[in-house]
Amino acid sequence: MSNQEQTFSEKLKSHSRKTHDSVDELVMSMQPFANTENYGKFLQAQHEFHETLRPIYLDDKINQRMNNIAELGRADRVLQDMKALNVEPAKIDVARQNPQGAKRFGWLYCAEGSNVGAAILYKHAGKIELTDEHGAVHLAAHPDGRMRHWRDFKGKLDNLNLTEEEKQEALEGADDAFAYFKRDYKINCVNPPTQKKENTA
């Protein structure tokens, strides 16, 4: 299929395939499910990533164009997992991104696509006794099922009717999102996760 015949979501997939694979390789190389300490570092990286996405999911104009996108954000679920495992936000010197314009659609593509891949991560999480009720809430499947939800989301992307310039911006946004997560995770894995002190009073 030529680029001219591809849907917008297919363009995003083909454009970001190598970068997506490199993120998968990085995550697994850090062995996030070897123990809860490693998983804490992964959670901190997820926290930075999903907090960057929070204003995108809540943007009124985006929600007008992509119905009910606000309910898909996982930032609060990441925080819930961090609280369950007494992990605080990372203290690292990485400026949080502020995606604008059509780049935000590329960020959303990365975030929602990661929920599909999270099926494998969720399975690994069970090895350290994490579940969709404790510690791995943000990795749980969408109530409609991962693939059905993914097809619905891609349909919303394809129906945006973006200009060619906007599509190019979105591709750049996807690149930025993947690069941001990789950089943050690499830096964070150099340092141990910050644990909350238990209240002994």
Walkthrough of the structure:
The chain is mainly α and 201 residues long. It has one domain (29-188): Heme Oxygenase, Chain A (Up-down Bundle). 61% of the residues lie in helices and 0% in strands. The chain is globular, with a radius of gyration of 17 Å.
Feature tags:
7 helices; Heme Oxygenase, Chain A; single chain; mainly alpha
Explain briefly what this protein structure is.
Helix content is 61%, strand content 0%. By secondary structure, it is mainly α. The relative contact order is 0.20.
- CATH H level, superfamily name: Heme oxygenase-like
Low-pLDDT runs of 5+ residues are 197-201
Judged by helices, strands and strand pairing, the structural class is mainly alpha
Beta-sheet strand percentage?
under 5%
What number is the mean pLDDT? 91
Number of H- or I-type helical stretches: 7
Largest sheet: none
| Portion in helices | 55-70%
What overall geometry do the principal axes of the alpha carbons give? globular
Total strands: the figure is 0
Total tally of structural domains: 1
CATH fold node name: Heme Oxygenase, Chain A
Provide the succession of SSEs.
HHHHHHH
Q: Which CATH C-level class is it?
A: Mainly Alpha
Radius of gyration: 17 Å
> Can you name the CATH architecture?
Up-down Bundle
Topology, element by element:
Blueprint: H1 8-29, H2 36-58, H3 60-65, H4 75-84, H5 103-125, H6 146-158, H7 164-188
Helix pairs in contact: 1-7, 2-4, 2-5, 2-7, 5-6, 5-7
